[in-house]
Write a structure and sequence with these properties.
Glutaredoxin, two-stranded antiparallel sheet, 5 helices, alpha+beta, single chain, 9 strands
Length: 156
């Protein structure tokens, strides 16, 4: 399923790195950035998470809730957040149900081999729970700055 801007973001209920259940609808009334990434502690995913971490004071100032989502386990997320001191929520989508709802669980190609995996895609959700912006083929090192720039424009 291909999501579009302007539609209601699909809700989810997933465990975070501490095992606590998080629901998107609990954050209604504030901005949210959902960023889907392939795997904890891999080069591109670490670069993206650390760029968000380094820009986190700006995300907080703009009152945006950040969620990183991958198919990794709660335990894996806990290790990842502790290792890199990540100050935001990582969600364990082990059954890939949320990735499927958002259309980011898809066929990928690497070195001529096809396999199913998570597309590096982010969704900016407005305070009304609607998708304000979709980022496809995210560049890990640049994504945090790009999302912050868009947020500042959208919040005016």
């Amino acid at each position: 399923m291909k999501l579009k801007t302007g539609i209601k973001a699909p809700n989810f209920k997933l465990a975070d790195q501490n095992g606590d259940l998080q629901k998107l609808f609990n954050y209604k009334g504030q901005w949210a950035l959902l960023y889907f990434y392939p795997k904890d502690d891999t080069p591109g995913c670490t670069k993206e998470a650390c760029a968000i971490r380094d820009n986190f004071p700006e995300f907080k100032k703009l009152k945006i809730q950040v969620f990183g989502i991958s198919a990794d386990s709660v335990k894996s997320h806990k290790k990842f957040t502790e290792k890199y001191k990540l100050p935001f929520i990582l969600l364990a989508d082990e059954k890939k149900e949320v990735a499927e709802k958002y259309g980011v669980w898809a066929k990928k190609k690497f070195m001529g081999r096809e396999y199913m995996g998570t597309l590096r895609t982010s969704f900016l959700i407005d305070p009304n729970g609607k998708i304000a912006k979709i980022y496809e083929n995210v560049k890990p090192a640049e994504h945090a700055a790009e999302a912050l720039k868009d947020l500042r424009l959208l919040q005016k």
